[in-house]
Amino acid sequence: MTEMTADHEEEEGEIHRAEAPQRAQRKMAPIVPAQNIAGRALVFVIAIMTFLSCLTFGAVTLVRGTAAVWENQISREATIQIKPVDGLDMEATLASAAEIAAKFPGVEKTSIVDRDATARLLAPWLGSGLNIDELPVPRLVVVTIDESNPPNFAAMREALTNTIASASLDDHRTWVDRLVAMARTTVTIGMLVLVLMLSATVLTVVFATRGAMAGNGHIIEVLHFVGAEARFIARQFRQQFLVTGMKGAAAGGVAAIVVFLVFSFWASRNMATPQADQAVALFGSFAIGWAGYLGVVLMVLVIGALTAATSHATVIAYLSDLDTRQTDGG
Fold it and tell me: 109 φ, ψ to 5°?
């Protein structure tokens, strides 16, 4: 009898040893099954939000870069305008104005806009083949200034008007101030739009998390009441939503980068056309640069992390409310 018992125990031991590798190879199933989360719809929504956020960020980057170029170009130049009057020797007056301006410290050089250049400036409005001498067209002298040591514009303006009655000096300060104000306003609006999109993403994740908890409510309550920590349960949701958020954010970021590359390629291939020239004049070369692409990557990471953090906070709040209701009921 003792020998039969020993043989039986030995057989059971062998069976348990044979099943041990199978149990070791068996993977732990997630508490929150992935199919219980509206994965595809959430990925699609997050991709759209990320795409729009990246486009907004890229547009703000383009505006800031173009405004900086405009500001640098405008702030490096001033313009002397000579209005034609009866009996005025325009060429001699232009030379005199350029000479007066060149004497002031901070002026690097002066250049007179000749007849041909003036005709080209007026060609879009008056057509080609203009005879400047037959039209009462003001003539210009461009003054290139030192940005680090600008001249005294008030003294220059006084010296010009005392010598040449029809001369006026435009230092472009008004245009620079308006340009800076426009750029700041555009950047502010873009940032507000970006905040609204991120807020919409957070709300979407909150609703998706609550929907997932509603579908897994029985699992969550059983785990919570048998002693599972809230952080453990929230971590299961966070992992699922992190993967979902990163998929959607990556798709939206890649789509935004493709759009920027397409516009940049289009601008480079159509540089000679009037449409491309106007677009480049307004928005630059449509190239957001390495800083812009790095911003898109950071946007993808931020949205993915925001999705995971939002789901985590939502689950913690739900479990705290569950504890409160259980205490009140008890």
Answer: -165, 165
Q: Which of 204, 161, 191, 226 is nearest to 48 (CA)?
A: 204
pLDDT digits (tens, 9 = 90+) for 19-37: 444 444 445 555 555 554 4
Q: Hey, is 143 helix, strand or coil? A: strand
Split at pLDDT 50, 70, 90, the class of 185 is confident
User: In whole angstroms, what is the distance from residue 180 CA to residue 199 CA?
Assistant: 28
- Both tokens of residue 133? 């001498």
Cα gap 262→109, rounded to integer Å = 40
Strands (DSSP E) contained in the chain are: 77-82, 107-112, 139-145, 167-170
State whether the Cα torsion 222-228-230-234 is positive or negative. negative
Q: What is the pLDDT of residues 192-212, one digit of tens each?
A: 988 898 888 888 888 877 777
Answer yes or no: are the C-beta atoms of 264 and 286 closer than 8 Å: yes
pLDDT per position as a tens digit, 140-158? 999 988 878 888 888 999 9
Residues 228 and 31 sit within 8 Å (Cβ to Cβ): no
Q: Give the pairing of strands 107-112 and 167-170.
A: unpaired
Residue 130 CB partners (closer than 8 Å, separation 6+) = 119, 122, 123
Spatial contact of 237 and 280, defined as CB atoms under 8 Å apart:
no
Percent of the chain with pLDDT over 70: 77
* Residue that the structure tokens 């703000």 belong to: 60
- Give SS3 for 215: helix
Instruction: For residue 136, give both structure tokens.
Output: 């009462």
Nearest-angstrom CA–CA distance, 131 and 326: 92
Our measurement of the distance from residue 226's CA atom to the centroid of its chain's CA atoms, rounded to an integer in Å, reads: 47
